[in-house]
Amino acid sequence: MITGASRGLGAALARGLAAKGAKLLLVARGAGALQDVAKATGAHALAADVGSPGGALAIAGAAQELLGGVDAVIHNASVLGPVPLRPLLDTSDEQFREALEVNLLGPFRLTRALAGAMALKGGGLVVHVTSDAATSAYPTWGAYGVSKAALEHLGRIWAAELEGRGVRFLTFDPGEMDTKMHADAMPDADPATLARPLAVAEKLIAQLEAAS
After folding, report:
1. Which active-site residues does the annotation give?
2. How much is the pTM?
């Protein structure tokens, strides 16, 4: 399962994993773009909001129905918080809450819905896509950075609690990529200096293969 699969890294991962024969469920809020990726990769598509309180159970249920269970989930869906980026003093409760709901609570709820079955069968992989904003205090990146820092620690706690159960946790920082999210955050950045999502996806897929 790949969340945030309608564009950017998520779409690139879908293409790369489909080429290797993976059976995929792609999840994103944007149904139109998601269907395009699904058609190109032969994957199942589910238009859903991972940040909604009831989203995780609905997604997990669909995964069981469509895939018969999940061997790996890549938590790639993410939001910046307020756009244009702004200092915490100018960030509203709603903007901060949205970043936490999508970037942290969504992965928590979805992992909680999936990891039990993974542990029972003795195997599974959970990938958290993070950012250097999780460890560096970049001005105006507050909501995003806090959510990613918490996401990284969430993965460490999951790993400690499920140690010996066969469920592995991987945190992956893709770096700066030529994506819409990066353009929204830094509109003056030169795309030529940024990594292409497909190249980054290949690096992550190599790590997934090494972990299998």
Report:
1. 144
2. 0.96
